[in-house]
Amino acid sequence: MTRLNVTVGRTSLKNPIIAGSAEHLIEASGVQRALHAGVGAVVVKSINESDRGKDQLQRAEYMLLDEEWREIPWMPNAPATAFIACRSGLSPQSFEVWLDQAIKLDREAEAADAYAIASLIVADLAQTIAMAKQVEQAGLRVLELNIGTPYASQAKGVVATELDPERVLSIVSAVRQAVKIPLWVKITGQSERVPELAAAAFRAGGEAVVMAGRLLGFIPDVETLQPFLNTTLGVGGHWNLPLTCHWLAVSRQHLGADKPLIATNGARSGLDVARMMLAGGSAVEMSSQVMLRGTTVLSSALEEFDAYLQRKGMTAAGLVGMAADQRKTFPEMPLRTDNWKKYVAL
Ligand SMILES: Cc1cc2nc3c(=O)[nH]c(=O)nc-3n(C[C@H](O)[C@H](O)[C@H](O)COP(=O)(O)O)c2cc1C
Description:
The chain has one domain (about 5-325): TIM Barrel, CATH 3.20.20.70. The chain is an alpha/beta fold. The protein is built from eleven helices and 15 strands. The protein is about 35% helix and about 15% strand. Helix 4 (about 125-140) links the parallel strand 8 (about 115-120) and strand 9 (about 145). Flavin mononucleotide binds near residues 20, 22, 45, 88 and 266. Flavin mononucleotide binds near residues 22 and 84.
């Protein structure tokens, strides 16, 4: 074990930073750039069988907002607080082309002691199962199954936003029975039941749970009086980090420390990676900041994270859940009579 090594179920990663799926990982060159940045794994852009998913990508729109909810130019050097609001779709490639590309990328990744991870989004479960089998037969080593996209309520039958643990159980069980490779399940954050959804995914044989997907939002433009991008959008960003960490910590408590969790939603830096691991993540996916600013986000995060471990005399694996395991209940807090008075503006 080196300082940076972590394990996620059966999968050993050279470091816990994963390039999470989005548009910059559609083309092989984008995945290769992420691998060159030194990450432990890259999750390629998701696909499913639906032509409407491909169509949705070609109708997709993206915008960058600042902390005043104003649109700002899409630039790699945008302010650190900038976040993406968008409607996204699925890989525009045919499944055959996507699969062929993914397997070649996973071979390249293997040579760099990393992984290119396949990603399927459920629309029709029978088709997902058929695709999962082909993913395994092609030799891909890990499958991420996304059942927690933000968009199902806005585009029925194209993607999944599973909110019911029973449905999670039946979907993940069906895919688990079809393939033997490590199966990571990405779940929604648009629920009060994130730990229960995660529990169902593990009960069904999921090997790790990625939490928690972006949310739906609606942002009126005060100048045009219209909704930004004319509709409801997928939103996430640095402001979501405390929510991600909360779900990680609560899920770890609910499920036990032996159930690997992977963080997504809100990581911008190596210290954010540390925060999400202290909350219970065994690894951390970084996505929208990489799409916006490029893969230097990944290499800088790795460098900052390693420097942090050295400064603290810690290993990455040793960090996992440390803060989560110190979490106390409200009644355990000491009495602080009239403390609130110090916090009221005069
Ligand atoms: C434009 C865009 C496209 C995305 N596409 C996918 C996708 O195809 N599959 C997937 O599992 N997640 C997808 N995501 C979600 C990201 O992988 C990630 O979970 C989410 O953006 C939160 O993490 P972040 O704060 O690091 O961006 C997408 C996100 C964005 C912004």
